[in-house]
Every structure is written in structure tokens, then in C-alpha cells.
Amino acid sequence: MSVKVRSVSKHYGKQKAVDSISFDAAPGRILGFLGPNGAGKSTTMKMLSSYLMPDSGSASICGYDTQGQSLEVKRLIGYLPENTPLYLDMYVKEFLSFVANSYQLSQTAKKINDVIEQVGLQSEQHKKIGMLSKGYKQRVGLAQAIIHDPKVLILDEPTSGLDPNQLLDIRSLIKSLGTDKTVILSTHIMQEVEAICDDVIIINKGKIVADTSIESLIAQH
Ligand code: ADP
Ligand code: ADP
């Protein structure tokens, strides 16, 4: 198991957002984190990505505690936040080069070209991010999340706000990127889980109410 979460809780003031959740995620599988608005999905994704500290419990990625916030653990994780803070005035390549440098990667020019090809951004690579459609902006978001070849990919509502065609494209892209990684993606759409996930966790009001494979979930219905 490359991701282990044990009794993790998070409050915002008196608001309990995540209530003692535990789960594992395995390499080569896509785990859907399914729940309604306000269930605690984003809070969990932020804690896994080491952007937010749990109040209690522990989360580890490939044996590294996410609370350590070391460069080692950051290198293991690729994170696509729900509202990606993209730099709209930057050119696609300029932005990816900025991200590559922040990870202190070598051979950045080659890695940038490879990742542009991987996410299908060739036709847009010389444009400013602000000029791109939502679907292409999301490809830039995915490119920044995978440029350092992380072991674990955390995607917070990666298809929200996309039109039906873009949505299908981004789903199949995620499926193709996930083959050698542990992918955890949050969504409030059951069909998304059925379409691309191998396992599913259902979260409601901060608590896990189901943790199962997609096959057995479908078999129960
Ligand atoms: P989801 O991603 O499933 O919509 P969130 O993790 O964003 O859920 O939110 C879980 C709960 O925590 C919600 O009730 C939300 O309003 C609350 N919450 C999230 N972020 C904050 C914050 N920064 N301050 C206060 N409450 C928050
Ligand atoms: P998300 O589901 O990614 O948290 P939201 O649109 O719910 O996105 O929230 C946007 C921002 O506002 C986030 O930084 C979140 O932490 C914060 N936030 C969400 N709910 C609350 C809340 N009830 N009180 C204060 N801040 C909140």
C-alpha cells in the first residue's frame, strides 16, 4: 500500500470536516473518493497532499509521513487542487518550466516536451494559459501534477465544470496516466467512479460509510 491513512480528523473551528477516517490506496489502482458537497473530500485531499495538517491521526505516502512536508514527500505526490491556481498570464511552457524548476528536476526541456505530449497539449503549447479552454486548462493542471513523475496522484474534482466532451477526454487521460501510479480522485458523481475507478470510498459528513471495489459495489445494486 503506498497510501496509508489512520484515524485522521480535521476541524475548522467547531466544524468537524473529517472525522477519524482510515483507508489504504494501492499502486496501479484508481481510488474514487465519492461524496456530496461538504462531505470532507477536499479537506482529505489537502491533508494527503501535505497542504493541510490533520488535527490527529496520521497519513503516509510510501512510508513518509505527509506531515513531514519534506521535499522527499512532495516529490512522491502530484496534486491537482479543485480550483487550480494557474497563472493565466504565463505561457504553457513557461509555467511548466517554473514547476519543473521548483522540483529541481534535471533535463527540464525534455520533461516539459514529454509531459505536453502525454496530456495532449501540443497544439496549445505556445499559448498563454488564460487563452485556453477549460478542458485544456485542466490538461495544464494535470501536466503540473505529473511533471516530476510522482508515485501518488491526488486529483480533487478533476472534471468539475467541464463540458461532456472535455469530461470524457479528461477521464480517459486520467485512466491512462494512472497505470503505474496510485491515483486518488474526489468526485460527487457516481458515474465518474464507475467509469474510471477500481476502488471506491464513500464519505458523508466526514465519515467513511463504504470502502469497496467497483465490482462489488456494482454487484450489490
Ligand atoms: P467537500 O470537498 O466534500 O465539498 P470540504 O472538505 O471542502 O468538503 O468541506 C468539509 C466541511 O468543512 C464543509 O462543511 C465545509 O464547509 C467545511 N470547510 C471546508 N473548508 C473550510 C474552511 N477553510 N473553514 C471552515 N470550514 C471549512
Ligand atoms: P473546496 O470544496 O475545495 O474546499 P470550496 O468552494 O468549498 O472548495 O471552498 C473554497 C475555499 O473556502 C477553500 O479554501 C475552503 O477551505 C474554504 N471554505 C469552504 N467552506 C468554508 C466555510 N464554511 N468557512 C470558511 N471557509 C470555507
UniProtKB/TrEMBL annotation:
GO molecular function, one term: ATP binding
Domain ABC transporter: from-to ranges: 3-221
Any coiled-coil regions, as ranges: none
SUPFAM superfamilies assigned to the protein according to its UniProt record, in alphabetical order: P-loop containing nucleoside triphosphate hydrolases
Keywords assigned by UniProt, alphabetized: ATP-binding, Nucleotide-binding, Transport
The keyword Nucleus appears for this protein: no
Family assignment from sequence similarity: Belongs to the ABC transporter superfamily.
The protein's name: ATP-binding cassette domain-containing protein
Lineage: Bacteria, Pseudomonadati, Bacteroidota, Sphingobacteriia, Sphingobacteriales
